[in-house]
Structure formats: C-alpha cells, structure tokens
C-alpha cells in the first residue's frame, strides 16, 4: 500500500513529517510513503500577526484542501497549530509521543549573556503575557517566519533574543542554540505543544493506530478541551499543559481576559486510568476552564 503524506514546506514541517513516516513504516513494513509538500497561506503572509489574518488555522488550509481533493492521504501538523474543533471528515487519527513541551530562550550566535535592553522576538500573546509577568521592563516585538528565518533575523542583530519552542529546535538538531529553558511553571506551553498530529480519513485509522501514543492523546484532548471551553483559538493567550506522574494526570491552565486584564493559572487532577475514557479527558479540561472563569467572577 502507498500513502501520500502532506506537509508544509518549511524545514521543520518536513522533518516532522519524516518522523511520522519513519514511525508508520516501522509498524507497517510493507507501507510505501510519498512526502508531498506545499506552501500554506500562513507561510505566505508574513507581514501581519496571525491573529490579524485568521489564526494559525491558516497553516492547515491548503493541507485540508489537498486531503479533500485526494492529493494526499494524510496530513502532518504541529498540534498546537490546529484549531480546537476537529473536522468530522478528517479527524486526528494519531498523536505522537510528546517532545519537550517547554519554551526556550535563544541568544544570537556567539553571545553568552542576554542583553535585556534589546527587544525579544516573540510570536504569541501567550508568551508575551507570561514573559512580561517575569520581566516587566522587557520590550517584546512580534516576529513571523519559520524557525530558521527567525534565527537568521536574530543573528543579524534585529533582536536581543528569541523565545521559541524547544521541540522544534530539537527536531531540527539545533538544541545547541538553546540558552535557557523556561520551566512550565514559568511559561505555560500552548495546548499540544511538542505533539505531532496525523490527520486523515477514519478509514486509515487501522494504519495509524500503531503510532498513536495513548497518553499523549489523553493529555492533548484535555488541553484542547480547556482552550475550547474558554473559546480560545490557536492564537489565543490561553495556555494548557498536562502531565502524568505517579498515576495521576495534572492539567494546568492559563486563563487571561484581555478586556479585564484578569490573569490566572490553575490546575486540576484526575487518576491516570480515568483519562483513558475520552469523556473524562474532555471533562477535566472543561472543569478547569469553568473553575478559572468562576474565580474571575468571584474576584
């Protein structure tokens, strides 16, 4: 059997698709895969922030069209770039094992000390809010483009530092560029950060089942449920991160109301075995969202 696997054209997106293809062929040795790349609307419009042009769902637009037209059979996405609502026709068939979910600080090449007087390049409101909470005097400037483009701008002196996702740098073999890791208690990650999602028709689920990481699925469903309940999209300042330790799943969530300035991080826990029920995974996210909304109301 041969499958066409779709990806964005960036070096990171291609590497992520290659990782999924390698896993698919490991569990399905007779499977042939062809990588099909395409430039998306989100890749083409770089002079505006994502929230001004429709959100990160623009990174999926062409890939979903290719699925509908039969040009590809599967699409590989960074889960954090996907809208919170899945399409019924092309659901997420598999969630990869999570790579390092943390955000990191990257300095210009050859620079060892962070010059906080220079602007920091940062692409999301989620990061900006949390960075300002840590460093109130910091100047933060929006930056667009793929990881390599951003690093090039940094090294040319346009910024004093960048804040990026550790997962992307590690997958590109650029871990050596990381100057500092921000723990999840300092900067809460975007829902799904570090997870790859495989999208396609339900008829292909038997092929993707072997690469579907169950704990990653449970946690991702909970994180996305939290964001969805707060009506947050992938460009929203809402953040969520779940982890399973000692048989307990703990979900942390960040709620920010742009209108009132209310900013709160809270958490909710559930035994690991209960997370296997998708309804429970959804519920823990919804319950935490309601808890934080109620705290603002009671304030």
Write the layout of secondary structure elements.
Layout: E1 2-8, H1 11-27, E2 32-38, H2 41-44, H3 50-53, H4 61-68, E3 74-78, E4 92-95, E5 103-106, E6 120-122, H5 125-134, E7 140-142, H6 147-155, E8 161-165, H7 166-171, E9 178-182, E10 196-200, H8 205-208, H9 214-229, E11 239-245, E12 248-256, E13 263-271, H10 272-275, H11 278-298
Parallel strand pairs: 1-2, 1-3, 6-7, 6-8
Antiparallel strand pairs: 3-10, 4-10, 5-8, 5-9, 11-12, 12-13
Helix pairs in contact: 9-11
Mean pLDDT: 91
Task: For the largest sheet, list the strands in their spatial order.
Answer: 2-1-3-10-4
CATH fold-type name of the largest domain: D-Maltodextrin-Binding Protein, domain 2
Number of helices: 11
CATH superfamily of the largest domain, please? Periplasmic binding protein-like II
Gyration radius over CA: 19 Å
- Could you give the distance between the termini? 59 Å
Name the overall outline. Answer: globular
* Domains, number: 3
CATH class wording of the largest domain? Alpha Beta
Domain Porphobilinogen deaminase N-terminal: 3-205
Function: Tetrapolymerization of the monopyrrole PBG into the hydroxymethylbilane pre-uroporphyrinogen in several discrete steps.
Protein name: Porphobilinogen deaminase
Keywords: Porphyrin biosynthesis, Transferase
